[in-house]
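Summary for the steering committee. One of the milestones for this cycle was to obtain a three-dimensional model of the protein with protoporphyrin IX containing FE bound, which we needed before selecting residues for the alanine scan. The sequence and ligand used are listed below.
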Amino acid sequence: MVARMGAAGVNFLNDGFERVCADPAAASLRPRPLCLWHTLRGMLWVKTFHIVFIASWFAGLFYLPRIFVNLALVPADSPAERERLLLMARKLLRFMTLLAVPALALGLWLWLGYGIGLGPGHGWMHAKLAIVVLLIGYHHACARLLRRFETGTNHRSHRWYRWFNEVPVLLMLAAVALVVVKPF
Ligand code: HEM
């Protein structure tokens, strides 16, 4: 079996507790137990939380524009309904921003800490990072659009928001395909 070597010479397939070291001088030393974060199991825990936080962030990226669809449909003589939807949208935006931080930080840990996708020959990782930049831009666009609803300056139709709502679907499909299929 071919060992996957990450940054710092950690053998992720070792699952356990011993460092595989390329340094011949150090190789003569008795293998020392590693802390959880330097093992395959540690990396899999980081990946688990990465996926969970990404999924939770996306729940917000899918749902917030649905609230915008409803806000765009609220009749001018229903201020109470408008306020209720605005409150929901504000809370959701705050929560999904909190979820995005660990989601991205854990991805950076997998990339820069464990060295997965690091270095030349990992075009999929660069493409995935481009998708991440677009996702952060989409998140910011949601915050700006919410401000427009708050200030009463939204001029876009509910149909426009329905199309806007499809953008994260496509970005998610592209990001997951890149990281799972790794086509280049
Ligand atoms: C700063 C942003 C991100 C970085 C640096 C990053 C990095 C990584 C890395 C290095 C892996 C491990 C890949 C492997 O084991 O082959 C991974 C796994 C994964 N990432 Fe990300 N990621 C980021 C954002 C995202 C986003 C936005 C999504 C979803 C749209 C996503 C979805 C996934 C999934 C589903 C996996 C598991 C793939 C598998 O194990 O087969 N990541 N990520």
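Key point for the committee: DSSP finds six helices and no strands in the chain.
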